[in-house]
Specification:
With about 90 residues, the chain is mostly helical. It contains five helices and no strands. It has one domain (about 10-90). The two termini are about 20 Å apart.
């Protein structure tokens, strides 16, 4: 969500999280607070771009097929955040 909102670096991603913490908590508890920019950088750098793109396209197609529609489904970034919360708790 931070990137979609104009964040252009690790620090601005962290600042977005701090400013939007109440809203983000609707999607994940963030028991250990917002991940620091170094943690965000570690998560993003660990992702394989080709694998991520392939998974994203499969997910979009499965959503489209499930709806039996040819309209493009919007990406639910909150689900992506939810999956990363557990990993971020380890970074502190």
């Amino acid at each position: 969500m931070a990137i979609f909102s104009g964040a252009d670096g690790w620090k601005s991603i962290q600042e977005f999280g701090e400013l939007q913490l109440d809203w983000l908590r609707h999607h994940c508890s963030f028991e250990n607070d917002i991940p620091k920019r170094h943690c965000v950088a570690n998560i993003i750098s660990a992702l394989d771009a080709d694998t991520l793109l392939e998974a994203l396209l499969k997910w979009i197609n499965s959503r489209r097929e499930a709806a039996q529609s040819h309209t493009l489904q919007l990406i639910d970034a909150s689900r992506m955040l939810e999956r990363q919360c557990v990993q971020c708790a380890k970074c502190g």
